[in-house]
Design a protein that fits this description.
The chain is α/β, with parallel strands linked by helices. It has nine helices and seven strands; from the N terminus they run ααβαβαβαβαβααβαβ. The chain has a single domain, classed as Vaccinia Virus protein VP39 (Rossmann fold). It has a seven-stranded mixed sheet with strand order 3-2-1-4-5-7-6, sandwiched between helices.
């Protein structure tokens, strides 16, 4: 297909794919490193039942899918707009069902089919006007009591502008207050927020301490309350209400 025949979303997917390939590696060592990071950050938020149905939206080359499979989950699905990244994910994660698909279209035909849905550094690529509809579709695709886990750039981090504008396909950054607004409007229970540092090394503890100290000092100097999360990434977990059957 010629580039002029692509939709804007597909063109952005190609743009991000080029950016990703320039700054990231798909080596086995990288998959193992990211798996250990996810184990430190995400494991406690995931279902205890290893047959739970998992979906990763914007799965990229399959880092989260690899982590889920290596953690013993057997019903793992992923979708992404980029054909190159889907191909890489299928190669790296043969035990997962990976499709090239647009999220809203995919979710629309899968009401209450998933127990856990993740979006890892995906939501910041979605145009702001489309985010409420996407989150509503995610909610509908979850079973009652199902869980959504989101990781996005932290808009309250002191280096947030660098993250926001380093990648042209980034549309927006998020904060704890903005995610409370969004998820509440989408019908989720009150969300919880966590840092994205897995603490797999002593250096991680030192970094978190220094980041918190620096952020609290500078925010207070400006007369502002310190942010709840002070790492570059913001992890958000929210559940679909258990009384949402048929809604």
């Amino acid at each position: 297909m010629a580039r002029n025949d692509l939709t804007n979303a597909e063109k952005m997917a190609h743009t991000y794919n080029a950016f990703f390939n320039e700054y990231h590696s798909n080596s086995p060592a990288m998959y193992d490193l990211v798996r250990r990071r996810y184990a430190g950050v995400m494991s406690k938020h995931m279902p205890g039942d290893r047959t739970a149905r998992l979906l990763d939206i914007g799965c990229g080359t399959g880092f989260f899918l690899n982590f889920a499979l290596r953690s013993g989950f057997t019903n793992v699905c992923g979708i992404d707009l980029s054909p190159g990244q889907v191909e890489a994910a299928r190669k790296a994660c043969p035990g997962a069902q990976v499709q090239q698909a647009e999220a809203l279209e995919y979710l629309g035909s899968r009401k209450e089919q998933f127990d856990f849905i993740s979006m890892n550094h995906m939501l910041e690529h979605v145009p702001k006007s489309d985010v409420p509809e996407l989150l509503a579709a995610v909610r509908d695709a979850l079973t009652p009591g199902g869980r959504l886990a989101i990781t996005v750039p932290n808009g309250e981090h002191l280096l947030a502008p660098r993250t926001r504008y380093r990648d042209f396909t980034h549309e927006i950054s998020y904060t704890v207050p903005s995610l409370i607004q969004l998820l509440g409007n989408a019908g989720f229970d009150k969300p919880s927020f966590f840092d994205d540092n897995p603490r797999i090394r002593l250096l991680a503890y030192v970094r978190i301490f220094l980041e918190r100290w620096l952020h609290r000092g500078l925010y207070r100097l400006c007369g502002l309350p310190a942010p709840k999360v002070t790492t570059p990434g913001l992890v958000t977990v929210a559940d679909k209400p258990t009384d949402s059957v048929g809604k």
